[in-house]
Amino acid sequence: MRISRRTLLAAGTAALFAGKPARADAGGRYLSAAATFAGRYAVVAVDEAGEIAFDLDVADRGHGLAVRPGSSEAICFGRRPGTYGLVLDTLAGEVVTEILAASSRHFSGHGLFVQGGDLLLATENDEVRHEGVIGIYDARANYKRLGEFPTCGIGPHDLALLPDGKTLVVANGGIDKRHDDNGGRELSDIRSDLVYLDWQSQRLLDRAVLESQFARLSIRHLALTEAGDVAAALQDSADVPDLDFPLGFLHRPGSAPRWLAAPDGGWVRLRGYCGAAAADRAAGLVAMSSPRGNCVGLWDESGAALEALAIHDGCGLSATGTPGELLVSSGSGELFAVSRAAASPSPRGANGEFRFDNHMVRI
Amino acid sequence: MIRAISACILLLVATPALALEDADYAAAVVSTAKGTIIPGYQAFGYTAKDMQARLEALCKAPADDTLKNAQQQFAALTTAWARIQYISFGPIFEHQRAFRIEYWPDKRNVVGRQLAEVLKKQEHAALEPERFATTTVGVQGLPALERMLFGDDAISELKGAGAAFRCGLFAAISNNLETIARDVVTGWTEGDSAFLARIEHPSEDDEELPSGRDAAGRLLNDLLTATIAMRDMKLLAPLGTSLAKAKGQNAEYWRSGQSVAVLAANLDGWRALFGTDQGLGGLLAAQPNGKPVADDVSAAADQAAKALAEITLPLDKAVADSAQRKRVEAFAVQLVKLRDLLAGPVTTTLNLPVGFNALDGD
Predict the structure, then answer these.
(1) B106 at the A interface (CB within 8 A)?
(2) Least-confidence region, from A344-353, B5-14, B104-113, B252-261
(3) What are the pLDDT digits (tens) for B53-99?
């Protein structure tokens, strides 16, 4: 073996492919994990017209992103089981630092900042005890790892911070590396739930589980609505999904999950798989994408289905500066705007170099 | 645990909704691998070996005729690669092999900068095969060779002080390309974990290829990517937004004038990789209601080939010519039709999840 892809990239990527300089203006930009059509992985900033503002190479496929409040920093996590969190400066288009997963931990692909941007919380997996944990990092001290606390579940994935600033809601996907390593999945062993944790006291506040018939659904991605609900996007973990299973619900602590209404044409349109969730809080909209169903669904905050729009391999979702209009990125490298009023997605542009991965955040 | 998984597989196969069995998928990919993919890498390897001989002849007697011979062989090398360029799975994915063969697009002039640096340093030890294979990707492959063979100073440089090093670099690149091709073929065919054997006998323990359906998904995904990448990277990038904003130098191989020939080889390779009687195309035609879809794909590929044949100038010039530009655009339209057929009816009929995000979710 002459060079392993990972070591070569880790050692010399920055020198090999120096990033394109960032432009001076920074309005209406989004950050996304991406891959070139030839298969090189990157984090890219893209404007609403679909033009790439800058790109930074990463060693492995990226996944979720978080923006640090009060600074120009953001972080992109490696895809589960992730080994890195790349901290970048979104104005300069440069790498700030890279966090590596702690020993016998791997990143689950998502994280967020708390305490005004001072601390970073990341969903991680304890590979020894097979339990989910939240890793705590000090963004003021070069992202030094301060410690961790349990997510009280298996395979945590996405997370969100409630408006009180201290309640963390975490989607325990119920699937961890053991399931992945087995290729096929022991469906009876999937235990997904939604937990509410106080990140300061590190205590479990509430737990929501699905009715037993839907137990094999994996709760993976979250968004917060203006009304105060958590919107959760699900995936059917079975090899042959039941295409009529619901894939999205709304929840608030102390109550039972409320399923979103099936989109026009039925849940079958989402092919048993939601890839991302977003809320347009200004317009009271919830959006969920299904790259497998080549479709993005919109709901209002009561859970009533509005539109289900066709977008090939569309997955990344973000609210925009325009209330009522969300942006969708696709695996073909295209951006589309979707809105409640529009009958079809409006193409914004294709960059021709990068495919957009699962998630996109506004910077 | 193993028994439970096996039971699960049996269940899947027995599900009446799935007309296709996993072995059908595996067989389709195996036939394409044996008939097109592996022979494609072999052909690229032979062509690289011949390239080596012609570069030696050029170095021995730098002149118009020996240069022309080498340039013709370079053209053959680019088309041999183009036929299988869009296969992204298997041994070609390891060790950055695809990038080492062709680092493109190269918007930041990585190749130019790295080549200039290597030529300036004149470090002969860096050309030793093991070390060369781990050197910067920009100097290892076709784009570096193209610059040295198609520059105005191609012959004069071979008569100057740096000639010996330049010829050493020629040998290093052509040898490197041949070695990559040989290693890829070996990876597909030899040893206990030969990639072909893994597709033939899928195992749940194989994370990358747990089933024949996964392998078929990879192949179909690459075919879909090819239609998108040919259009977006090879056509739209040089076309720019208007005639006045055409960017000819975004065309692939504009220095050697190979842009259109390479697209023809891409398309030709695409048809072989899709297959008609065998492969995914054959599998498609054998499905209930699949024949008309297979015929549509075949007709769309014919139309695309016809549209491409209408482009009679190299792409960098065609995009700057108002009449030819329209033909480039017409070819791009045909590629979209091919893409939509693949992403829609083909994917549905073959029951394959396709797309960057769709295929491999998290």
Answers:
(1) no
(2) B5-14
(3) 999 999 999 999 999 999 999 999 999 999 999 998 899 988 889 98
Per CATH, which fold does B23-200 belong to?
A middle domain of Talin 1 (1.20.1420)
Q: Which of A184, A294, A312 sits opposite B8 (nearest CB)?
A: A184
Is there a contact between B204 and A239 if contact means CB atoms under 8 Å apart? no
pTM over 0.95: no
Q: Which of residues 5-44 of B touch A (CB under 8 A)?
A: 5, 8-9, 12, 15, 17-18
Write out pLDDT tens, residues B245-262. Answer: 999 999 999 999 999 999
In angstroms, the CA A285 to CA B292 distance is 41
Q: What is the mean pLDDT of chain A?
A: 88
What strand order describes the sheet that includes A62-67?
A62-67, A73-78, A84-89, A94-100
| CB of A311 closer than 8 Å to CB of B353 | no
Q: Using the beta-carbon criterion (under 8 Å), do A313 and B237 form an inter-chain contact?
A: no
Report ipTM for this prediction: 0.73
If 0-12 CB within 10 Å is exposed, 13-18 middle and 19+ buried, where does residue A239 land? middle
**From the centroid of its chain, how far is CA A342?**
25
Q: How confident is the model at residue A181 (pLDDT cuts 50, 70, 90)?
A: low
Q: Which residues contact B245 (CB under 8 A, 6 or more apart)?
A: none
Tell me the CA distances in angstroms from A339 to A29, A297, A318, A320, B97, one per residue in order. 18, 10, 12, 11, 43
Q: Which CATH superfamily is domain A5-267 in?
A: YVTN repeat-like/Quinoprotein amine dehydrogenase (2.130.10.10)
CA dist A114 → A76, A123, A155, A203, A281 (Å) = 16, 14, 21, 16, 20
Q: How far is A341 from chain B (nearest CA, A)?
A: 26
Taking CB atoms and an 8 Å cutoff, what residues of chain B touch A313?
343, 354-358
Are residues B362 and A109, on separate chains, in Cβ contact within 8 Å? yes
For A280, residues 6+ apart whose C-beta sits below 8 A from its C-beta are A286, A287, A319, A320, A323, A324, A325, A326
The residue-averaged pLDDT of A146-152 equals 96
Closest by alpha carbon to A312, among A343, A286, A336? Answer: A336
Interchain proximity A18–B107, CB inside 8 Å? no
